[in-house]
Amino acid sequence: MTPLLSVRDIRKTYGAHIGCTDVSFDLFPGEVMGIVGESGSGKSTLLNCLAGHIAADSGQVIFDTRAEGPQDTLTMSEPARRMLGRTDWAFVHQHARDGLRMGVSAGGNVGERLMAVGARNYGDIRHQAIDWLGRVEIAEDRIDDRPTTFSGGMQQRLQIARNLVTGPRLVFMDEPTGGLDVSVQARLLDLLRSLVRDLGLSAIIVTHDLAVVRLLADRLMVMKSGHVVETGLTDQVLDDPQHAYTQLLVSSILQV
Amino acid sequence: MSDYNFAYLDEQTKRMIRRAILKGLAIPGYQVPFASREMPMPYGWGTGGVQVTAATLVPDDCLKVIDQGADDTTNAVSIRKFFENTASVGTTTQTAEASVIQTRHRIPEEALREDQILVYQVPIPEPLRFLEPRETETRKMHALEEYGLMHVKLYEDIARHGHIATSYAYPVKIEDRYVMDPSPIPKFDNPKMEMAAIQLFGAGREQRIYALPPYTKVVSLDFDDHPFEASKAPHPCALCGATGSYLDEVITDDAGGRMFVCSDTDYCETRRAQGHVGATQTEEAA
Fold this sequence. Notes:
The structure holds two protein chains of two kinds.
Chain A: E1 5-14, E2 17-27, E3 32-36, H1 43-51, E4 58-65, E5 69-72, H2 78-86, E6 89-92, H3 96-99, H4 106-116, H5 122-135, H6 152-164, E7 170-174, H7 182-199, E8 202-207, H8 210-216, E9 219-224, E10 227-233, H9 234-239, H10 244-251
Parallel strand pairs in A: 3-8, 3-9, 6-7, 7-8
Antiparallel strand pairs in A: 1-2, 1-4, 4-5, 9-10
Helix pairs in contact in A: 4-5, 4-6, 5-6
Chain B: H1 11-26, E1 32-33, H2 47-56, E2 62-67, H3 74-87, E3 90-91, E4 100-104, E5 117-121, H4 135-143, H5 148-161, E6 172-174, E7 178-180, E8 198-203, E9 208-212, E10 218-220, E11 247-251, E12 258-262, H6 265-273, H7 279-285
Parallel strand pairs in B: 2-3, 2-4, 4-5, 5-8
Antiparallel strand pairs in B: 1-9, 6-7, 6-10, 8-9, 11-12
């Protein structure tokens, strides 16, 4: 089986400071991988390198494209990479404001990716936008409202709808539940889990919340100071942590 | 007036502007940066158009300046005087006689010829500006031909108003490549842009020049189920009776009285001289 995403020796430094280094893994279709670690451990740097938002210093990110098979996305042309970014890939930002156009209605936000890949029929775009708002539990009558009038949880769900509308195969998520209150988090996680399972998506989820990965991720990668210190199946890593840092991480969860 | 160079700008500046114009003509619709000069008029009054006109004029040119279609508004009068003083070129109000026409917000009704140049004054040359504020990003979008965002604006129009409510500065695609802001001309004028004359666009504050060679393909953006429509007020001109020209609405009293007249004053006057009359004249005669 060909991995959907194959990462080899990714390294990114900021001057003398290491962002992340020696990261290698394979992600198979339908698989969800979690990346956990404390603030500053290089999780977001790694995710941004993989998604092409920042340029890695060395390494390979090989993505199994629909048309041409496995391609190194770090060396492919910028137009091709940006095309991937709005078709086969999706990126869910921690702050919905970074991923949404706040001055454009909810329907326009969802429709933008469709129009970016050539949809030119207003009725169809509108219909798909309504369909996707429904799937993320946003009422149809809010379609012409701007995201500024939405609550934080709704904005985050809108961002997810906007990203998934073009049927991506790989979703990058940067702390999708960060900044939301606990009950909204739970609802969002539930929604994410059913979307990921129903659509057979592959996903890479960066978070510092172990509950999120326990619920969503098949596999887990623990990072510290830019290095991967432990990898394995989620339950295995969380139930029987081997590395001292992972043990610390697991033991610092508050038991209510 | 010997202290002033012909047409105000010095020759090196004109040369720089001509290079930008040539580059613009070679890549239709592409915004060429140029070192815009301070002009003796405020930004927003046509500093870009004036610089392009100054670089284009030769001593035997005949210049026409229009503002919203009219030859007798402040902006048009002052720019025409400016070039009468600094370039001593002949000026006219008749479209057919002019070799260079500087315009703000309109294309003349009369079809232009191959030996004419139409210069537009452009306030904001970037059609994506109000959707994407970052210049670095809009340049990249032009370079990579990522124009989905332009349709988001039209989508918003339909969602809010039920039809494409953008009625001026309506975005166009040039030769299937660059999306361009046609300057704030009414969308009624968009189909006229596929014309015989050379069209030059100058934005002074934003320091951009772009251009269309004669007979360039210009397509107004739209949706399959909401096609582009070149709209105008559904009336004939009250003065000359023209039915196919773009009209201005003129409020005549405080009791709801109004009349619609051609915005192109030269076109209207020419027609009246030929004996055409509109509703107002027939009433007066009766």
